[in-house]
Automatic annotation (TrEMBL):
Signal peptide limits: 1-26
Signal as UniProt keyword: yes
SUPFAM superfamilies named in the record: Porins (SSF56935)
The organism of origin for this protein: Flavimaricola marinus
Protein name according to UniProt: Uncharacterized protein
Annotated keywords: Signal
Length: 423
């Protein structure tokens, strides 16, 4: 491990050692509870073209053992959560066998809720082999925005390490005027890669938002966000984004208006959007439509739609997003993403799930578009309250405009055991 890896990994070790001894105190000081769960699973997989090369035809057989541990301590005002995962992988391709670690992850989070303020802290680290099959959902964050560098991570070999830290502080939550301060840091590191385009990078962001409650149904928001991006290819950039908006509470949901401005060396990127959120009896429906004016005098229409429903028979969620990025390192990049996920109970013990996704990424001032699509389906059977068996199939397609199309297909069979400890 290089000194750079050691220094950043040590931060997580210090966080874990510093917070873990306080768990029993948090659990008992205010009568809260402690929950913990251990998961063990064994998966047998067969994947065609695991490396996702245009002319790949080899079939790879894998045995993946996964160990997962999750713990949460909660009181009336505090929540601490700890999650860890470790995979062990054995694979065989064209007579060649390989043994090693699979995906590895560690995350810590802490939340403190007060009458007038709240604090949130989180840290996470994950490590995975670049070459192994990954669904499209791995490249979409919680807001369905594709991470710009992730499309290149689908090819080649090597190890990718992601480190993430975040903190937020809200103040004067019970007053007509409130503030929210947040900061985040991310680092992506590569080792032993065969793709020269995969280089180490870091991102940093700092934001300040102000809230003005004009009336019980009218709220004004303003914000300022600064972000930085750098990588080992010598790319360095930063950006500042100013935002202003209004939210009107209505009987069935909310109506919002938002303005944004991101100044740059070539001019200012301006954005305007209208959003609508509707609460349904068994779900939510939301959407937005807007326009972005780029420094090159280009007009880009933006928009999004999200729908989710939860019923006794199952759940369904669908989303569409077409947006222009403002963060450093990606300012002006255009992303289009669609996703559909659903599950239904075929019987009290059998559940079927389906997931489909498509994403199109266009980098600003670069001739080239990359499209990624995936489709997966699975059926799970509850053998007992603690044991489950599932079978699934997955398909992944990558289609870059400057290269050849490549696809991979996977069949899997997984058995898992849950050990749940509740206090």
């Amino acid at each position: 491990m290089t000194p750079r890896y050691q220094a950043q990994a040590s931060v997580l070790v210090v966080l874990g050692c510093g917070i873990l001894p306080a768990i029993p105190l948090a659990q008992t000081s205010d009568g809260g509870g402690l929950t913990a769960a251990l998961t063990v699973s064994e998966s047998l997989e067969a994947t065609r073209n695991l490396a996702l090369t245009p002319d790949g035809t080899d079939t790879t057989l894998q045995s993946v053992t996964t160990l997962g541990f999750a713990m949460q301590s909660e009181t009336q005002t505090q929540v601490f959560a700890f999650d860890a995962g470790l995979g062990l992988r054995a694979s065989a391709t064209s007579g060649d066998t390989d043994f090693g670690l699979g995906d590895r992850s560690l995350s810590l989070s802490y939340g403190l809720e007060g009458v007038r303020s709240s604090l949130g802290l989180s840290a996470a680290a994950s490590q995975a082999d670049v070459e192994f099959f990954r669904p499209l959902s791995d490249f979409i964050d919680g807001d369905t925005i594709i991470q710009p560098s992730s499309f290149d991570d689908l090819t080649g070999t090597g190890t990718r390490t992601d480190l993430r830290f975040a903190a937020s502080l809200s103040m004067m939550d019970d007053a007509p005027f409130g503030l929210l301060l947040d900061a985040s840091y991310g680092s992506t590191l590569y080792q032993d890669t065969t793709d020269p385009d995969l280089v180490d990078s870091t991102q940093f962001a700092l934001g300040l938002d102000a809230r003005f409650d004009i009336s019980p149904v009218t709220q004004i928001k303003t914000g300022l966000r600064y972000s930085e991006f750098s990588d080992d290819d010598g790319t360095e950039s930063d950006s500042v984004t100013l935002t202003a908006g209004a939210v009107f509470t209505q009987p069935a949901g909310t109506l919002g208006f938002n303005l944004s401005a991101t100044p740059g060396d070539d001019g200012t990127q301006l954005g305007f959007a209208v959003s609508r959120q509707i609460e349904l009896p068994d779900g939510t429906l939301g959407g937005n439509v807007g326009v972005v004016l780029t420094p090159s005098d280009e007009t880009i229409l933006t928009g999004g739609l999200n729908y989710s429903v939860e019923r006794a028979a199952g759940t369904l969620s669908a989303s569409f997003d077409h947006s222009v990025a403002t963060a450093a390192g990606a300012t002006g990049d255009v992303t289009t993403a669609l996703s559909l996920q659903g599950s239904t109970a075929l019987s009290p013990d059998v559940t079927a799930s389906l997931r489909a996704g498509y994403a199109r990424y266009e980098e600003a001032d670069v001739d080239g578009v990359t499209s990624v699509a995936d489709l997966s389906a699975s059926v799970s059977y509850a053998l007992s309250p603690d044991w489950s068996l599932s079978a699934g199939a997955s398909y992944l397609l990558r289609d870059p405009s400057d290269g050849d199309r490549a696809s991979a297909q996977t069949l899997s069979l997984t058995v898992s055991r849950l050990f749940d400890v509740r206090n």
